[in-house]
């Protein structure tokens, strides 16, 4: 009986075509972990081998991976609150795909800049519209699909530009508008995004008056987290110099002119209070899954993909369709660590299917051996200026500058994510 490698060498199958929709934490993790596995290497986001253990032998075979993204680069979304406060940091947070060594040194990974309009899982085809090419659609065919298109978030929660150059203008305009006046900035919404946006603005512009208003009596009120996380976040935010107004629901905001003849905004709250601001940042929008291109049968009523524990679509598409990251219906708070982990799991499970198709019967493999996603308890790491607060069930609540360093390093997590995904590694170094 031949080995899988023998079988592969004589296999009439063409290279497997893998289409990945979304080139962020989840999508890049799926693409690169799968490349590792098909190159016969340990997957970069998988568990580290125990010292002294025998290396796992994996057959090598070729695949063709196509990543589609509406942006022309990887945007470090976690760094968005800092990018929207600091013109020095903003260029670092967006790296064009053409400048990512891990992608550019592989001839079998192609990145297309544009949008997926529809997916036909029966035919294994997707309609793609290239950025700047009007409405003319191209058809992309695939053997395996990974959907990693995340959530659609509105401005100014995230920049809306699709090109890095345009993004730098967008961010620069925002920072100037937020920092030029006398009355300061009001951030509306005391969820994780509002807290981080307010704290980063204050950190980078210490003389700016920054106020966070929240309609409920606790920050992070819609998150399933213990009260001490919420209370600690409030303490850190106030310590960082942000004015926090709880139980303040915005009634209306009027354009007005101050005593110096400068235009500004007067915010009225339902409790009768009002205050004047130069700039109001709304950080309260409900984000929606970017899944409108998928058949309704695989979505729940909010548009999240109804995955199985192995991250596959529900039957009848479970053999070759996977969804990962923020857009899946699963337990836990949406986090980039979760998206990268799911990317690794999906890569493993797709690799198993490829092996099975290549030589499964000869290897007495009855079925692919899948890895599955555990239930995810509520956990969070939240940057609040120079410090961070973190919570996960085993450790409880922790906070401080050491927690900031551990969770976010020196650059709001950019280097941690870049290294975890091995984006700076060329193919030869893999
Ligand atoms: C301001 C902010 C701060 C955050 N802070 C933290 C934090 O501190 N820690 C943490 O763990 N998590 C944090 N998160 C959450 C974290 O960013 C997400 O969990 C993570 O981005 C999910 O990754 P993803 O790959 O699933 O999706 P995303 O990062 O949302 O990426 C989806 C990609 O798909 C592309 N796309 C969408 N639709 C299409 C389409 N139709 N065709 C082609 N491409 C498409 C998008 O352009 C995007 O690049 C934060 C989120 C925000 C908004």
TrEMBL record:
Residues 16-343 form the FAD/NAD(P)-binding domain. Pfam families: Pyr_redox_2. GO terms for molecular function: electron-transferring-flavoprotein dehydrogenase activity; flavin adenine dinucleotide binding. Gene3D superfamilies: 3.50.50.100, FAD/NAD(P)-binding domain (3.50.50.60). GO terms for cellular component: cytoplasm. InterPro entries: FAD/NAD-bd_sf, FAD/NAD-binding_dom. This is Apoptosis-inducing factor 2.
